[in-house]
Amino acid sequence: MLAEWPPGEPEPTDYWLSTLPVDVRPRDLVRLAKIRWRIEHDYRELKDGLGLDHFEGRSWLGLHRHVTLAAVAQAICTQLRRTPKAPAQA
Predict the structure, then answer these.
(1) What pLDDT, in 10s, does the model give residues 9-59?
(2) Residue 49 and residue 20: Cα distance in Å, rounded?
């Protein structure tokens, strides 16, 4: 069991149960527990910012093209975010 107890809080704010091996370092365990936020953020960006939920076509092929283009756009955004010399765009 992993618990997050921020300073100044009367009790822990989050809990995680793990079935990972006991030799997993606490740092890795925390990283894996916190990765859910990153996944939710990326999904929200895909859906709201990049238009994943705007598909109104009628074909299976069209849906696949739309999802592929949204995924490529997100990959480009992620690459720009990770590149320190990338200019900030509004």
Answers:
(1) 999 998 889 898 989 998 999 898 888 888 888 889 888 888 888 888 889
(2) 35
Length of the chain in terms of residues written: 90
Q: Tokens 């849906």 correspond to what residue?
A: 63
Distances (CA, A) of 38 to 44, 65, 81, 89: 10, 25, 13, 21
Query: Could you give the C-alpha distances from 78 to 16, 20, 64, 75, 84, in angstroms and in order?
Result: 27, 29, 21, 5, 12
Residues 6 or more apart whose CB falls under 8 angstroms from that of 17 comprise 1, 2
What are the phi and psi torsion angles at 18 (to 5°)? -130, 145
d(CA 10, CA 76): 42
